[in-house]
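Quiz preparation item.
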């Protein structure tokens, strides 16, 4: 009986130039971190060459970036950006969503985080309101929510 199925292990595939972009992306999942950077750069370049449609190109590059982020959870956003030589990375939805989750949503939110520190320092609500340029009622309401 003839065998029709053949098992292929991603970590045993070569990274030759003739390998498809899809196989390269799949291989990126299992690649050792020491080799993942160069493979990701190669795949990004390959995506730029293979896809004249800029929209599709951006989606493929964003997918590659997402895999790299998953592999390097201990690195900062800027480190990964530098590692992949991506100047245009800040224009992606992935970058925007990461920044949105790590930065305070508003100036008010930032100021309210300081209210508890001011209370610990013994400042009155009136002093805090003047210092942070906030309405007294906003500070009172925030302090009630925190207690």
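Solution:
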């Amino acid at each position: 009986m003839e065998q029709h199925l053949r098992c292929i292990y991603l970590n045993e595939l070569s990274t030759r130039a003739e390998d498809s972009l899809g196989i390269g992306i799949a291989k990126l999942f299992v690649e050792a971190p020491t080799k993942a950077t160069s493979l990701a750069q190669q795949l990004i370049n390959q995506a730029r060459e293979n896809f004249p449609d800029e929209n599709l190109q951006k989606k493929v590059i964003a997918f590659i970036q997402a895999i790299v982020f998953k592999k390097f959870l201990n690195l900062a956003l800027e480190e990964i950006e530098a590692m992949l030589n991506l100047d245009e990375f800040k224009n992606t939805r992935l970058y925007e969503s990461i920044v949105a989750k790590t930065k305070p949503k508003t100036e008010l939110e930032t100021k309210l985080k300081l209210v508890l520190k001011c209370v610990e320092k013994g400042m009155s609500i009136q002093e805090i309101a003047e210092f942070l340029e906030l309405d007294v009622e906003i500070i009172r309401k925030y302090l009630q929510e925190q207690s």
